[in-house]
Amino acid sequence: EWKAEIPQATDPALSASEHEGMACANAGGDIMAGIAACTRLIDAQATTDKQRAMWLAARAGFRLREDKPGLAKADLDQAIKLQPDDADLYHARAVSHLRLKDHAAALADADASARLQPESLRAQMARGAALEGLMKFRDADAAYGRAIALAPNNAAGHDARCWVRAMLGEFDAGRSDCDRAIALAPDGWNAYNARAYIHYRSGRHREAVADDDRSIDKGHAVLGD
To answer: I need a surface site. Which of 38, 131, 179, 217 has the fewest CB within 10 A?
Structure first.
């Protein structure tokens, strides 16, 4: 396609390592091909520590897509040893810990990511998820609140805070968050599910059924069935 748009007789061919780099960096590409490319780059003698950490993180992303969070964590352990001040690596390992349901370890890594990048939305969302997993709903509320302050129009923050406020029994505040999440992302299913729970606990059973139906419909649309 490039040659068709910009025909140049001297257009250089990509080297083997460049092809490998493109395959490894393509987070949405074929999983096995991506893992193989990343592995060859990680093992290459010419790879610097900074590059190796980058390729390890990329391979961890494929491992998560492969639903192997333990292998992803192992890659990120190595990457963090090579680049201990990289906030993104701690965030990625926090996600792996969340997938492994090790919420205490996830919180430690999310805290590290937040210390290195105080304005990181992802770090605050990961902190909230870890605290929620530890059943520390009040602290999770605060973490999601910081995420919302950083990105007021991010539906995920309002969606997550809606649920923890429901767990705290703060149904009016939780419903406001769910309403906001739905207004920002009307095709999402989770906020309808959380709002249905709030309706049910508040005795509004007709509204609960209606939101449950919406949640099911939206979920089917996401899954394509």
So the answer is: 217
CB 175 within 8 Å of CB 162: yes
Please give the model's pTM, rounded to 2 decimal places: 0.87
Closest CA to 207 of 197, 219, 217: 197
Query: Which among 147, 153, 95, 151 has a CA at the least distance from the CA of 125?
Result: 147
Amino acid occupying residue 100: L
CB 96 within 8 A of CB 76: yes
Q: How far apart are CA 127 and CA 103, in angstroms?
A: 9
Q: What share of the chain is helix, strand, coil (3-state, %, to 5)?
A: 75, 0, 25
pLDDT digit string (tens) for 190-205? 999 999 999 999 999 9
Tokens of 161: 């805070």
DSSP state of 189: S
